[in-house]
Amino acid sequence: MALWDTRELVRSGTALLLCARLCSGASPAESAISAAVNEFCCAVYRQVSERDGNVAISPVGLTAALAMAYAGAEGETAAEMAGALSWGTDRENGLDALAQLMRNQNKSLHRNGGVWKSINRVWIQQDFAVRDAYRDRVEKQLAASLGLCDFVGRPDETRQSINQWVRSGTAGLIPELLGPGTVSSLTRMALINATYFKAPWAAGFPAGNTRE
User: Fold this and answer.
1) What number of CA atoms fall less than 13 Å from residue 123's CA on the CB side?
2) Which among 203, 202, 145, 195 is positioned nearest to 170, based on CA atoms?
3) Bridge partners, residue 117, by sequence
4) 182: CATH
5) What is the rounded distance in angstroms from the CA atom of residue 145 to the CA atom of residue 119?
6) Does residue 210 lie within any of the structural domains?
7) Domain total in the chain
8) Which of 150, 177, 186, 201 has the most CB atoms at less than 10 Å from its CB?
């Protein structure tokens, strides 16, 4: 399940691209994944900018969500996803580098009085078998989590549980990621990413220049 809704962003055509930022001392793998993340972001922006209204994109958030799917892909599907994400053929190094990039972004912002957090979880129908290789990629490489749930028997309760998890991870700023009817008894897996960002402006806007 991929959810990206710009309808509620106010409407003048502004583009906000929260691009991946390299920290000093980045490894070659991190440099490569940062460039890939931003290239992917620009490709996504070219698509979504055709719609009316403002556009806000977190390329690391989008990449993290797709990486959880890519971690389980094989064959032609894996090759197509790697191409879409602008990754090379070395999936394991790519997953490791993405996780390190996210950790370093958070550390860099924290040193400057800000917070950036990307929360990621794969919600899976509770009676589905999960391969060890996929679990390791999600939990150990991406530092995401797996959550077993009952989509079949309790779809709306599961939806509310996912919303509560997102709400807790974003300081209450995303109260309902999944609206009524977005989860059904036919759902078997949901790849959920949410991004929380709070930081002071590099150059603050003078309060005296604002008005109601």
Assistant:
1) 25
2) 195
3) 196
4) 3.30.497.10
5) 9
6) no
7) 1
8) 177
136 domain residue, yes or no: yes
Residue from 208, 207, 155 nearest 184 by CA: 155
Q: Which tens digit of pLDDT belongs to each residue from 126-171?
A: 999 999 999 999 998 888 999 999 999 999 999 999 999 999 999 9
Residues 120, 117, 69: CA angle, nearest 5 degrees: 25
How many helices, marked H, and strands, marked E, lie in the chain?
A: 6, 5
* Residue range 169-210, pLDDT digits in tens: 999 999 999 999 999 999 999 999 998 888 887 787 788 887
Residue type, 155: P
The residue segments making up the domain with residue 111 are 15-198
Q: H-helix or E-strand containing 163? A: helix 155-169
Q: 37 lies in a domain?
A: yes
Domain presence at residue 3: no
Question: What tens digit of pLDDT does each residue of 46-102 get?
Answer: 888 887 877 777 778 888 899 999 999 999 999 999 988 888 778 888 888 888 888
Give the three-class secondary structure for 147: strand
Cβ contact 163:178 at 8 Å: yes
